[in-house]
Amino acid sequence: QSALTQPASVSGSPGQSITIYCTGTSSDVGGYNYVSWYQQYPGKAPKLMISEVTHRPSGVPDRFSGSKSGNTASLTISGLQAEDEADYYCSSYRRGVTVIFGGGTKVTVL
Amino acid sequence: QVQLVQSGAEVKAPGASVKVSCKASGYTFSNYDITWVRQAPGQGPEWMGGMRTYKGDTNYAQNLQGRVTMTADISTSTAYLELRSLTPDDTAVYYCTRDPGAARFDSWGQGTLVTVSS
Questions:
Q1: Among residues A29, A48, A102, A35, which one has the least CA distance to residue B39?
Q2: How do residues B90-108 score in pLDDT, each as one tens digit?
Q3: Residue A103: how many CA atoms within 13 Å on its side-chain side?
Q4: Interchain proximity A103–B103, CB inside 8 Å
């Protein structure tokens, strides 16, 4: 299965805003509001940050937000902090009862 | 709090099988599906499939059909993943996750490293 497309890396200075894009097709991202975002530190399990495109689970800071336009979803981190440096993965339901993930984006805080 | 605790790392020879366990606590096990996700070194996660713990229904990724079996023991709140006919391409960290629906995974086990090597 082809993965969703994400940029390999994104960087920003503390306090800035960054956006990570996740591009799929009409069979996944564009066809369903079942896009999630995960944060992963090295050697650790992923953590759910955003579900159903825009929903932020309890305990996730409100500087994390999600949106979608057409076949592309996005994760925005506002007021970037040093602790936000991690890998981020998007995922989506894909027609045929499966879930597909993106290849991941490494966020660097300069 | 919700916790998923997995069994320890495994080293297997090509052609062997592996069985990974995932013990859940902090919630009613049968109220949620369990989905298994694996992550090869340096790669993004890969959805392997999931199961409805209260019914035993399973849904496997097409590329693993015939090699994978997911089961659950409600009496011990434990889920199991068995993968057969292992090849070096199966070397990965295997995660169990709690699946409340809507293609989201809201709690993850700590991961089990499975290494396939001769």
A1: A102
A2: 999 999 999 999 999 999 9
A3: 10
A4: no
